[in-house]
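Changelog-linked ticket: nicotinamide-adenine-dinucleotide example.
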Amino acid sequence: MDKMNRFKEFINESENIVFFGGAGVSTESGIPDFRSKEGLYNQKDIHFDKYSPEYLLSHSCLKMNPKVFFEFYRQKMDVRNIQPNAAHFSLVELEKSGKLKAIITQNIDGLHQKAGSDVVYEIHGTTKENYCMQCKREYLEDYIFTSKAEIPMCKCGGIIRPRVTLYEETLPEQVVNEAILAIRKADMLIVAGTSLQVYPAAGFIHNFSGNHIVVINKEPIEVKLERGKDIFIQGAVGEILKQVIFIIDT
Ligand code: NAD
């Protein structure tokens, strides 16, 4: 049996599926990932070249060099006009079927919710929520992206920052606990569009002890799979999910 049919069969026989995704889930919407050839880390940008991408998205940069942080953030992280793709929409269907119990995403673009998914754990936060670092007042993302000020400032004088987990920061505890619990309860895990190189997020999948893991990625990645139980499918996640999910027997 070919891999697509086995994937379909796994979905049919599973009742508690969890999806764990990364930046590759949103590349088909036009948002570059970090590590592939067209990714942000391989783009030449004279203006930002003297800094590493990890620094530009770090807590140190926000604290010590906020003008640079917001210039980079506004240029690269403004996803307000981006639309979900076939990967996001297929997962909405799988959730509706009752089989998909949770989506755990490393992405900060809010596209799963925009597509209509309900249970989404954003373990690296979201660009949709922003708050003043001093008084904690909440601000809409439009404020950060349209504010004329080089550094978006609150009325109280504090800096307004996105609720995303930057390098050097810890992940949101409650979301992380819920995500890990979902993986522990799952009988099938779909891992897609992630290089599994960003920790601790990448380690989450080790909590899975169900029946099948299906990994979908454009390029091979390092991940431990069990022969006969798990499969790796090389390709575009939107294309693959669209083909498989719209033909399941629900
Ligand atoms: P990564 O860039 O390290 O890896 C992405 C992986 O997805 C690569 O292995 C690539 O080959 C694969 N890929 C790209 N397009 C694909 C497609 N259409 N189908 C299947 N595979 C595809 O990303 P990561 O592992 O998620 O880690 C980077 C961190 O940066 C994460 O926290 C991530 O969410 C964040 N980030 C988020 C966004 C976003 O919110 N959209 C964008 C860039 C980075």
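Closing comment: Example verified and attached. Residues 173-185 form the longest helix (13 residues). The two ends are 21 Å apart (CA to CA).
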